[in-house]
Amino acid sequence: MSTTSTATATAAAQHTMEQPTSVTVVAHEGLGPAPETAQTKPHHVLNADGSVQKFRNPHSSFVDGLGPAGSLGPLGFFKVMGTFIRYRFQGKLDTPDTTPPTVTVRTPTFLPTRYPDNDPTKNHPLRATWLGHACYYIEFPTGLRVLFDPVFEDRCSPMSFLGPKRFTPAPCVLADLPAVDAVVISHSHYDHLSGPSVQTIRQHHPRAHFFVGLGLADWFKNAGIKEVTELDWWQDAEATVTLGPVGGGSAAKTSTSSSARPSSVASAAPANVPAPLKALISCLPSQHTSARSPFDRDHTLWCSWAVSSGGRSVYFGGDTGYRAVDQDQEEIEASVKDASDLAAVHAADDAVRAQRPGCPDFAHIGALRGPFDVGLLPIGAYKPRTLFSGMHADPVDAVDIFKDTKCRRAMGIHWGTWALTTEPVMEPPQKLKEALRRRGLPETGVFDVCEIGESREFGE
Ligand SMILES: [Zn+2]
């Protein structure tokens, strides 16, 4: 089946699904528990007048492998480029082979209605569909539809003709998604936030509400989007999605503003108008950086997120490191007598990891906000380790994050789409199995990867 024919079929189905007439968001300080260490906001870098100048990773688990780019301002961009050129000459930056076959891409299928059997009280699992790289589409059994980090362009770059190009196609187009109530963005890097994708979502889902880290709301407002809420780490928002009548009706036709259907009138609404959907959306820490130009490094906050609705929950790791290490895999392998002795290599690797602390935020997230039905956790873009370990988890880091955050199950993201770093493109899932074994977990059924476009169910 070609993507085009399915696109037509699902686009037709879109008109039969209840579309939101409004998404009301109330953000609170202190809605959920936060660790005491977070009260002083150690990730804020302040101006002399007390306003926030930019953000930083507050823990010693972060070392900037690309050099002190942030402290050098725009000059830092050229320093990063210099590091890349030096590594390229040293042969440490080989471009990985992306010749097919790599990851299988299938046309996704979505539920035809928000309530599969018309009984929202039943204890259904949530449904999660991988749309490539960090993008996931979540169908909650309450009826809520959430999209994480949508980027559907060929290149993740400020320019359409330059920058990393997809080696696996997008499994569908954004118009195929039957409904989008909330879009959650981890940070400003181009492989997670795309101007054209955001505008396409607006076109098809004009009521969709965007959730972003501190400092990033202006980017949306400058793009003409008012439906955006920015949050700091450990802040939460309660979202209420009011729906149009069962059986369709476009958002524009049903209501022009949220005041047209106050919640107090919900009980008096016609029988075919479903009850509003509720969700708790929580902004949580991650260990990363941000930038969309040489001049805005770390000016907006990077985050992980938790979304729960009707007792089902998702933890979205976004893009994060766990602990910075100062040795590359090749050096570790060279340090053992027999590099084919995997146990010896793993012991040497664990010794290198043990020298550095892991990011403590993940254990706080697990203890205070977990457990989660499913974690969407990054497993790719990790080599050379000395450059990227501070900001990108490798599969062992990802399994440590999985355990710390108390996810019951997880799916690997941030791989299989753009070759951003030097590891072979099919290495992350292999290393993930190895990492699960090393941490005493089963190789399958707990923390898996899937095909692009594939859906899995969680919380059953
Ligand atoms: Zn990033």
SSE diagram, text form:
Elements: H1 3-14, E1 20-28, E2 44-46, E3 52-55, H2 74-89, E4 126-130, E5 136-139, E6 145-148, E7 182-184, H3 195-204, E8 209-213, H4 217-222, E9 228-231, E10 236-243, H5 251-254, E11 277-284, E12 304-309, E13 312-316, H6 329-334, H7 342-354, H8 361-369, E14 372-378, H9 385-388, H10 395-404, E15 407-413, H11 427-438, E16 447-448, E17 455-458
Parallel strand pairs: 6-7, 7-8, 8-9, 13-14, 14-15, 15-16
Antiparallel strand pairs: 1-10, 2-3, 4-5, 4-17, 5-6, 10-11, 11-12, 12-13
Helix pairs in contact: 10-11
The structure holds zinc ion.
What does this 3D model show about the protein?
With 460 residues, this protein is α/β, with parallel strands linked by helices. It has helices at 3-14, 74-89, 195-204, 217-222, 251-254, 329-334, 342-354, 361-369, 385-388, 395-404, 427-438, and strands at 20-28, 44-46, 52-55, 126-130, 136-139, 145-148, 182-184, 209-213, 228-231, 236-243, 277-284, 304-309, 312-316, 372-378, 407-413, 447-448, 455-458. The strands form three sheets. The chain has an eight-stranded mixed sheet with strand order 1-10-11-12-13-14-15-16. Helix 10 (395-404) packs across helix 11. The radius of gyration is 22 Å and the shape is globular. The model is unreliable at 1-15, 68-73 and 249-269 (pLDDT under 50). The structure holds zinc ion (ZN). Residues 187, 189, 192, 288, 319 line the site of zinc ion (ZN).
